[in-house]
Design brief:
Elements: H1 3-13, H2 16-20, H3 22-41, H4 47-62, H5 78-87, H6 94-120, H7 125-137, H8 140-148, H9 153-168, H10 172-185, H11 193-203, H12 213-221, H13 223-227, H14 234-243, E1 250-251, H15 258-271, H16 278-306, H17 313-330, E2 334-335, H18 340-352, H19 358-376, H20 383-405, H21 407-431
Parallel strand pairs: 1-2
Helix pairs in contact: 3-7, 3-8, 6-7, 6-8, 6-9, 6-18, 7-18, 9-10, 9-17, 9-18, 10-12, 11-17, 16-17, 17-18, 17-20, 19-20
């Protein structure tokens, strides 16, 4: 069937309303399907919910909701504890309250991602945008994180990606205000910090003063807790306390430190007793691991600066993605959920450039497996094996990012080499 006949067939069989508004129709179908999936998971209770979230919710509710904001509950930051305190006044189940709030941001994140894809896509913008909305809202990592796990990674990721877009559009002050909101919800927003530092350093160094908006926003959002008796320093010390909560090299995420962690487990298994504890390994490798992550980030930054990278909107997303990935891969003590932000950025890039699709399946496949391990509490594949796959995905993404950002330079070198070869051949012919 020729293209003309196909077009005529569609015009004849499809109502004009469907042809004109297909993106709205498919968007609505994706929305309905995503909501149904989330409803199915609403009553599923994860280990985190059972042992942490629900007891904390109960403590806040029994303490009087907002009246209890002067007391630290669990490892909540003041902003999220304020949100939970507000939820205790609603006539819904505690577990549902957590999940519904997170699922709302699943929707916000999906809409934002569709908007970004619409702006970035080289062609078929509407089709790409509605497909992106469906891919995000129906992504297993997204709905499992919120509707099954009752976690809030979609919340800080939404604000983090929105801040990154504002930064890319040169609205630096507003981007750091929004970034402050992301920070206010979760410490893992710090993995986006390198791209903010690099971009502002290379654009206008005086704008570093805008970084003061981050702590300022965090303090403003914590005012209910401060009025209830918390100190201003509590806004920040809760994050310092979180960094020392889990003294293990890997926490169900295949970072480069999974190898010494697995060796420690193997030694204990062979000996039949704990000869090398995970806390001891963490103490040995903690600072070298941090220095390694900083060194890898520095190498990327120096290379990009040396090659005079163009700070276009899409390039800032590429660099932000790779540096976020670098932080989680090379830092110790990473949970499987800590890669949520770079996994969402990777999904955006996959809709913009086909070369970013293959590593996406490897990267998200590994994380999906880690999610399943968490829910089933059984691991079939050693973490070190997953690390190999994670490193392959990282190398593929590194190659993609550099190739996408510097195609003209590589092309210029090839043209120059071909030109020199041609000139040499001409000289040989003349001499002969």
């Amino acid at each position: 069937m020729t293209e003309t006949k196909k077009a005529g067939f569609l015009e004849e069989k499809c109502p004009s309303f469907v042809r004109k508004h297909y993106f709205l129709i498919f968007g609505l179908l994706y929305l309905i399907l995503g909501v149904i999936i989330r409803i199915e998971f609403m009553d599923q209770q994860s280990g985190d919910a059972e042992f942490f979230l629900l007891p904390w919710y109960k403590e806040i509710k029994e303490g009087g909701g907002f009246d209890y904001l002067g007391t630290q509950v669990g490892d909540y930051n003041i902003l999220y504890q304020t949100v939970i305190a507000a939820l205790t006044y609603l006539p819904i189940k505690d577990l549902h309250a957590y999940k519904i709030f997170s699922c709302i941001f699943d929707l916000f994140l999906s809409v934002l991602s569709a908007y970004l894809v619409y702006n970035f896509a080289p062609k078929r913008k509407r089709l790409s945008a509605v497909a992106a909305f469906g891919a995000f809202f129906l992504c297993p990592l997204v709905f499992m994180n919120s509707s099954w796990w009752a976690q809030c990674d979609a919340i800080y990721t939404f604000f983090g990606i929105a801040a990154l877009y504002l930064l890319a559009k040169k609205r630096t002050m507003f981007s750091l205000i929004v970034y402050g909101v992301a920070f206010g919800f979760k410490l893992q927003a710090i993995f986006l910090m390198p791209i903010f530092l690099l971009t502002i350093f290379c654009r206008k160094k005086w704008q570093f003063v805008y970084f003061l908006f981050i702590p300022a926003v965090m303090i403003v959002l914590s005012i209910p807790g401060i009025l209830a008796g918390r100190s201003v320093m509590d806004v920040f010390t809760v994050y310092f306390n979180q960094t020392g909560t889990y003294a293990e090299l890997d926490l169900n995420y295949p970072s480069v430190w999974a190898v010494p962690a697995d060796v420690g487990y193997a030694i204990d298994g062979i000996s039949g007793k704990e000869l090398v504890s995970q806390e001891q390994l963490y103490g040995i490798f903690k600072y070298p691991a941090v220095l390694t992550a900083v060194a890898v980030l520095a190498v990327h930054m120096l290379k990009w600066m040396k090659r005079r990278v163009e700070f276009s909107v899409i390039n800032i997303f590429r660099m932000g993605f790779l540096m976020n990935y670098t932080c989680v891969l090379f830092l110790p003590g990473m949970h499987e959920r800590y890669g949520f932000c770079y996994e969402m950025l990777g999904l955006i890039l996959a809709f913009v450039d086909r070369k970013a699709i293959k590593p996406l399946f490897i990267m998200q496949g590994i994380t999906l497996y880690d999610y399943i391990v968490y829910f089933t509490n059984f691991r079939y594949v050693p973490m070190s094996v997953l690390l190999v796959g994670n490193l392959i995905a990282y190398i593929m993404y590194t190659k993609y990012v550099y190739g996408a950002m510097f195609p003209s330079q590589d092309g210029t070198m090839a043209i120059q080499n071909n030109s020199k070869t041609a000139e040499h051949k001409v000289k040989l012919k003349i001499e002969n």
